[in-house]
Design goal:
The protein has 10 helices and 14 strands. By secondary structure, the protein is α/β, with parallel strands linked by helices. The structure holds zinc ion. Residues 77, 79, 179-180, 198 line the site of zinc ion. It comes from Paenibacillus sambharensis.
Length: 332
C-alpha cells in the first residue's frame, strides 16, 4: 500500500480504521470500515480533498475492496471532516448515506442552494466585535468548504430510538447533540462498544460552537449528552479523532469538569463588560492568528460559553451601541 500503509490500522475488534488526512490542526479524522457478511459498512468517510480521495482510492485497492462493496455509509454528524466524502462514496457505490434529520438540515443550511448561513455567522461575529478584516477572512474560508463536501449525498434519515444492524451487531442510536446538531452515537449493548463520533474525544475537547439558527445553549446540550453517555457501560469507544480508548466514563467526566472550570474562569474575566471577540482574543490569543479556521472555532466556542453563563444567570448580555453586544458578570 506504498506510503499510505500508515493510514490504515486494524482495530482489536477486526474493524479497519483509516486515518483520513485533514488540512487543519486536527490532522486526520478516523473513518471505520466494518466487515459485513457481504461487503462493508463505512463510518464517517472524511473531508473531500484531493489528498483524501487519493488516499481512499489507494487504501481500497490495497485492501481489495471495490466501491460496490461499500453497502452503507453511516454519518455520526454533518461536520465536513466527517461528511465531506459521503457523496463521493455514494456516487461510486450507490450505498445509502445515513444521518439524522437535524444534522442534514444543518448541512443544507451550510452548503445547500440557499447558503444563508455564511452571512448569518459573519453577522453574529460582527455583533460580538470581530473586526471587518477578519470577518472577510472568515467569509471566504466558509465558502471554500463547498467543494470539500461535494457532491452531497442523498440522505437516509436515522434517529434516536432506532436500532441499526451493521458490522454483525445491533446498534442503539443515541441522539447526543452539543458538538453538532443531530449528532448520533451508536451503542452495542452486547459488545459494550460505542461509536462516539466527536461527542467524546480522548486527549482533545470537542469544539462547542454557538451558531445562528441552531440551539441557543449548545454547551448545555453538550453537558446533558455527556451526563447521559457517562451512564453507559463501555469497554471500548471509537472516536472521530485520535485513538480508540477504553476509559469512556472517565473521559466524559473529564470533559464535564473541563467545561465547569472554563466557565468559572470566564466568569472571572467579566468584571468589566467585554465583547465576545475581546474575550476570544484573551482566551485563545495567538492560537487563532493567521488561521480563519481556528479563529472561527475559537470565537464560536467563546460565545457558546458566554451564552451558557447568560442562560444560567451568571452573566448578562448588554447592548453596547453600534449594534454591538457585551457580556458582564451578573455579580458585579
Ligand atoms: Zn465534528
Amino acid at each position: 500500500m506504498s506510503g499510505n500503509g500508515l493510514a490504515v490500522h486494524l482495530c482489536d475488534n477486526g474493524w479497519i480504521r483509516v486515518k483520513v488526512p485533514l488540512p487543519f490542526s486536527l490532522r486526520y479524522v478516523n473513518s471505520y470500515l466494518l466487515p459485513e457478511a457481504e461487503g462493508w459498512t463505512l463510518i464517517d468517510p472524511g473531508l473531500h480533498t484531493p489528498e483524501a480521495a487519493a488516499l481512499w482510492t489507494e487504501v481500497l485497492s490495497g485492501l481489495s475492496i471495490t466501491a460496490g462493496q461499500i453497502k452503507r455509509i453511516v454519518l455520526t454528524h454533518q461536520h465536513p471532516d466527517h461528511y465531506g466524502l459521503a457523496g463521493w462514496f455514494q456516487e461510486r457505490s450507490g450505498a445509502p448515506a445515513c444521518m439524522s434529520l437535524p444534522a442534514h438540515r444543518y448541512a443544507l443550511r451550510l452548503w445547500g442552494e440557499d447558503r444563508s448561513f455564511d452571512q448569518e455567522l459573519t453577522e453574529q461575529f460582527r455583533q460580538h466585535g470581530m473586526p471587518e478584516t477578519l470577518l472577510e477572512q472568515i467569509a471566504s474560508h466558509l465558502a471554500g468548504f463547498v467543494e470539500r463536501v461535494s457532491p452531497q449525498p442523498e440522505v437516509t434519515y436515522i434517529e434516536e430510538g432506532m436500532s441499526m444492524q451493521f458490522g454483525g451487531r445491533s446498534w442503539e442510536l443515541l441522539h447526543t447533540p452539543g458538538h453538532a446538531s443531530g449528532h448520533i452515537c451508536f451503542y452495542d449493548r452486547t459488545g459494550l462498544e460505542m461509536i462516539c463520533g466527536d461527542a467524546v474525544l480522548p486527549g482533545i475537547t470537542p469544539n462547542i460552537s454557538l451558531v445562528p439558527g441552531e440551539h441557543p445553549d449548545p454547551l448545555q446540550q453538550f453537558l446533558d449528552s455527556l451526563n447521559r453517555l457517562s451512564r453507559f457501560d463501555v469497554v471500548m469507544a471509537y472516536p472521530g479523532h485520535r485513538e480508540p480508548f477504553a476509559n469512556f466514563r472517565g473521559r466524559t467526566q473529564d470533559l464535564i469538569t473541563h467545561h465547569e472550570q472554563r466557565l468559572h474562569h470566564i466568569e472571572g474575566l467579566l468584571q468589566e463588560p467585554v465583547t465576545g471577540y475581546q474575550l476570544c482574543e484573551r482566551l485563545f490569543g495567538a492560537r487563532t492568528m493567521g488561521s480563519a479556521h481556528n479563529l472561527r472555532f475559537a470565537m464560536s466556542e467563546t460565545l457558546a460559553h458566554l451564552e451558557h453563563l447568560v442562560h444560567k444567570g451568571r452573566a448578562a448580555k448588554v447592548k453596547a451601541g453600534y449594534g454591538l453586544f457585551k457580556y458582564v458578570s451578573a455579580v458585579v
